[in-house]
Design goal:
Layout (H helix, E strand, L loop, with lengths): L1 H6 L1 H17 L5 H9 L20 E4 L2 E3 L2 H12 L6 E5 L5 H9 L2 E6 L2 H13 L5 E5 L12 E6 L8 H5 L1 E11 L5 E9 L2 E10 L11
Parallel strand pairs: 3-4, 3-6, 4-5, 6-7
Antiparallel strand pairs: 1-2, 7-8, 8-9
Bound molecules: S-adenosyl-L-homocysteine.
Length: about 220
């Protein structure tokens, strides 16, 4: 892995800068988001065979029938969480390869991430350690239960789409917390931003999206 972290060097920095210009054109404007997207190498999160495609604006396979989210959606969700506030303590559901986790970790106080597929969770944990990102707690579990031991959270991000928002996630939000989550069945999902107010929840629909389904139970 070490050689991959150093390997692409300037090439990866240049392609990453191109990815960031594209994100700007797509409407991402938060300087903090653009800066971390320029900084975190994306190619080390995908298979070596796909490395040259890592900065394209597309989802790519990461094994176990799952995909790394496209750069635009990672940036968009992070920007939605950050608007006029700081991330604080974050709960992420669906670690996948850990790319979104790394982005969040650079902007948050602490990230707690839950993944239902054990080998994905372990690989992401090892990779983030190598990238010297050490403010992340990992859990192999069904994220439909959240991670109650560390609740309440200031921010929640889900990278898989449930048919309805799990009650446990709403319960684990602090007052003032924001959750960004895709909701709906395949082919008709929408990205929601839910804010917890003193007296209830404010639900905004942002845009149509395509995510892998939020599945229950765990896989070894
Ligand atoms: N941001 C990640 C997205 C991976 S795809 C990345 O860029 O790599 C979504 C992930 O959510 C998959 O790894 C899938 O296994 C996981 N997932 C789906 N349902 C889940 C659940 N109920 N609990 C935890 N993880 C879940």
């Amino acid at each position: 892995m070490k050689h991959r972290l150093q390997g692409m060097g300037m090439t990866s920095r240049r392609t990453r800068d191109r990815m960031v210009s594209r994100l700007r054109q797509q409407g991402i404007s938060d300087p903090k988001v653009l800066a971390v997207m320029a900084d975190i190498p994306r190619h080390v999160f995908v298979d070596e065979a796909l490395e040259s495609r890592a900065y394209e604006d597309t989802a790519l396979p990461i094994g176990h029938n799952q995909t790394i989210s496209q750069p635009y959606i990672v940036a968009k969700m992070t920007e939605l969480l950050l608007e006029k506030r700081s991330l604080g303590r974050v709960l992420e559901i669906g670690t996948g390869c850990g790319y979104q986790t790394a982005i969040l970790a650079r902007l948050a106080e602490q990230v707690y991430t839950v993944e239902r597929i054990a080998p994905l969770m372990k690989k992401a944990r090892d990779l983030l350690w190598e990238l010297d990102i050490k403010t992340v707690g990992f859990k192999h579990s069904d994220g439909g239960w959240g991670w109650p031991e560390h609740a309440p959270y200031d921010s929640i991000l889900a990278a898989a789409a449930p048919a309805e928002i799990p009650e446990a996630l709403l319960q684990q939000m602090a007052v003032g917390a924001v959750m960004v989550i895709p909701v709906g069945r395949e082919g008709m999902q929408e990205l929601h931003r839910v804010t917890r107010a003193e007296d209830g929840f404010i639900d905004e629909v942002i845009e149509r999206v395509t995510f892998v389904p939020f599945l229950s139970g765990v896989s070894q």
